[in-house]
Amino acid sequence: MNIRLYLISACATLGLSAGAVEVTISAGGLQAAIGENTAETTLAVSGEMDASDFEFIGQSMTGLTTLDLSKATIASYSGDAIITGKTDYAANTLPAYSLMGTKLSSVTLPASLVEIGEGALSSTPLTAITIPATVTTIGMGAFSDCDQLTSVEIPASVTSLASHAFMDCDNLKTVKIGNGILSINEATFARCYSLYDVTLPASLKTIGDAAFNNCSAVKSVVFPATLSAIGNYAFQCAGLTSVNLSENPAMRTIGEWAFANCNGLVSVSLNDNITTIGKGAFFDDPELVDFNMPASCTEVAEYVFKGATTIDTTAVVHSGVTAINAYAMTGWNHVTTFTLPSSLSYIGNNAFEGWESLTRLNAEDLTAVPELGENVWQGVDQASASLIVDTPLYTDFSTAEQWKEFNITAVTSVEELMTDEITGNSVIAYFTGNMLTVKANGEIERLALYDSSGRQHVYATPHADEVTVDTGGQDCRIYIIKASLTDGTQATLKLARH
């Protein structure tokens, strides 16, 4: 026992708490200073330590709950293989796995510390930690599985925050990340189930794969303007209710399954610079209502909205979409009318499976029949659903597999609409100002007027061979006119009001 230790121990009889000890050592001298007093619960170290001293703490001082290193420095070590079998450890670094699995609930780190090594404090009952402003690196899994840790602030000095650093910290509630961090790496805060308050740095560029996966208490996150990419599974099963990336000009990529299984997610706002939304990004988000597909995204990815059954179709499939991929919109049983954009060339396997309410599919803007995967319309009552196509493509659709099962109706192409009169079968229609006249060579039993989105404006049963309709009060320019005659003849016409 050295003199310093002897004096402190002697003072314990004068009122100092039993189980508390303070030592001043040189590197590698902790074991000699402690001697047989390995049952101490509180230890304060002054002077210089090295990796061998941490090995002694981890292996021999198994009852230690409080460790104060505020007056200590950490020297480099080179010698016999220790801790994880390494023979060399850097200075100013809390050695990798050195305190892993100990009973430490309170640790005060050295003021000169530069790096917290891989797994250094993982699986400990830490209740709080102050990371010195000298630290630049937090290693992989450094604080993982610290179930009693409730908050953490990462200072601006930290420029490297490794993967899994705080994974499985079940009671971690608040996280504030300093502006030295450019990337939050893989699974850094994954399965932090109590985490609800996250402050991201203004410097952040990327959020890595599964970074906040299963953070079910997180309701909202403010994403910095510098952010350019969100990785795969990044917020899967998170508690987010809204995602606002509309004011993030650098944002380009949302990874696969990034926001999947977010049961409370209602609103997503994206900017038009985003070019990639990955497979399953919003999979099984049943409450998602507000969404806007960026103009730069020309494909609806596989599984991306499967199970997200409350979105308006026009918010997802815009005029530039070329492909709707496999299972992209499966289960949207709320959709009654859907318009395929003129740019569409491919629809993948089961993309529209389960559209049980579909009654009208507008395809008149297409210039070619899109290629189909397998079982695209599975669960759709195609025989009862109208497929509206351009007249030149009527035969192509009528003979194409999976298309021909629809109730197909041909209409005149938009290029031919700018006439005063249009004729189909035995029905003629024309505008005089706002007055629409429909004439037939027989009795018109039913007459319906729709706009180009399929919304019905007029329904009548005139039982006459001529009908006039005043459209002046309607905010509509292009009309679809459906007439049924008493002899069974049916006509569908498309006409523009000048």
Q: How would you explain this protein's 3D organization?
A:
The chain is 6% helix and 31% strand. Among the domains are: 1-112, Leucine-rich repeat, LRR (right-handed beta-alpha superhelix); 300-411, Leucine-rich repeat, LRR (right-handed beta-alpha superhelix), CATH 3.80.10.10; 415-496, Immunoglobulin-like (Sandwich), CATH 2.60.40.3080. The chain has helices spanning 3-11, 30-34, 51-60, 394-399, and strands at residues 20-25, 42-49, 66-74, 77-82, 86-89, 93-94, 106-108, 115-116, 137-138, 151-154, 160-161, 174-177, 183-184, 197-199, 206-207, 229-230, 242-245, 253-254, 267-270, 276-277, 299-300, 323-324, 337-339, 346-347, 360-363, 371-372, 386-390, 407-411, 421-424, 427-432, 435-451, 456-460, 464-470, 478-485, 490-496. The protein has 4 helices and 35 strands. With 498 residues, it is mainly beta. The strands form 9 sheets. Strands 29, 30, 31, 32, 33, 34 and 35 form a 7-stranded antiparallel β-sheet that branches. Strands 13-15-16-18-20 form a 5-stranded parallel β-sheet, with no helix packed on it.
Helix content: under 10%
**Under the CATH scheme, which architecture of the domain at 1-112 would be assigned?**
Alpha-Beta Horseshoe
CATH topology name of the domain at 1-112, in short, is Leucine-rich repeat, LRR (right-handed beta-alpha superhelix)
Strand content: 25-35%
Alpha carbon gap, first and last residue: 102 Å
**In terms of per-residue confidence, which ranges show pLDDT below 50 for 5 or more consecutive residues?**
1-17, 413-423
Please give the number of β-strands.
35
Rounded average pLDDT: 91
Structural class designation: mainly beta
For the record, what is the CATH homologous superfamily label of the domain at 1-112?
Ribonuclease Inhibitor
Quickly name the level 1 CATH class of the domain at 1-112.
Alpha Beta
Rg of Cα set: 34 Å
Give the biggest beta sheet: 7 strands, antiparallel
Silhouette? rod-shaped
Total helix count?
A: 4
